[in-house]
Amino acid sequence: MARSEPKAGPATLAEANRERRDIVSGQVMDEAGLIRFVAGPDGAVTPDLARKLPGRGLWVAADRASVAAAAGKGLFARAAKAKVSAAADLADQVQSLLQRRLLSGLGLARKAGDLTSGFEKVAAALDAGKAAWLIEASDGAPDGRRKLLGKTRKRSPPTPVFGVFSAEELGLALGAENVIHTAFLAGRAADRWAQDAYRLSGFRPLLPESWREEP
Fold first, then answer.
1. Distance between CA atoms of 101 and 200, rounded to whole angstroms?
2. CA 111 to CA 114: how far, in whole Å?
3. Is the backbone of residue 4 left (phi > 0), alpha (psi -120 to 50) or beta?
């Protein structure tokens, strides 16, 4: 049976207290559900995923349609009240940057001891309720994946699953070879990583389409 996409997760307490207006819809939203952009000295709109670049923030809902609308309809210039330009592929840029941040975050989590890898260790973490996320290589064999997905469904709520990166990409990020099964252990690091994962879900599915066809 196909597994549904994870839904947008809750913001941390600090983020829940920070709200910004989406320049596309006009709605006031938690920062956790938005992407910050700034205009550089040359007037080019740049994604600021870490929310640290200088300049006035231009906030857009974290989904492909909203970023494409902001870029294509001149909404950045209107919000900035200045002549600024946004690349036609701005949504693709955001997706690529989010993916890089997520891989970097996994590398940092491994060094901090917040990840566990290998089928048996991941299965034990899921059984014990210690896994905040199940991270599966997008090109891994289905047998082990099906068993671990079954364990995620036994939790309430189900443990979210992330299947964006290949075994090679995960291996490079984690300094290992043939990384297929990984669990991000529950804690503050997992909460921070999840914010980017949920934002990425607005730009691409978190699970490969082929997994939906698996029993």
1. 10
2. 8
3. beta
Give the relative orientation of helices 90-112 and 64-72 as an angle to the nearest 10 degrees: 140
CB 37 within 8 A of CB 45: yes
What are the φ/ψ torsions at residue 35 (nearest 5 degrees)? -110, 130
Strand boundaries in the chain, DSSP class E? 19-21, 28-30, 34-39, 45-47, 58-61, 115-117, 131-136, 161-162, 181-185
Predicted model pTM: 0.89
Amino acid in position 178: N
Condensed to tens digits (0 to 9), the pLDDT of residues 22-38 reads 999 999 999 999 999 99
Residues of the chain with pLDDT under 50: 1-8, 10-16
Alpha carbons within 13 A on the beta-carbon side of 107: 13
Distance (Å, whole) CA 111 – CA 106: 9
> What is the 8-class DSSP label of residue 214?
-
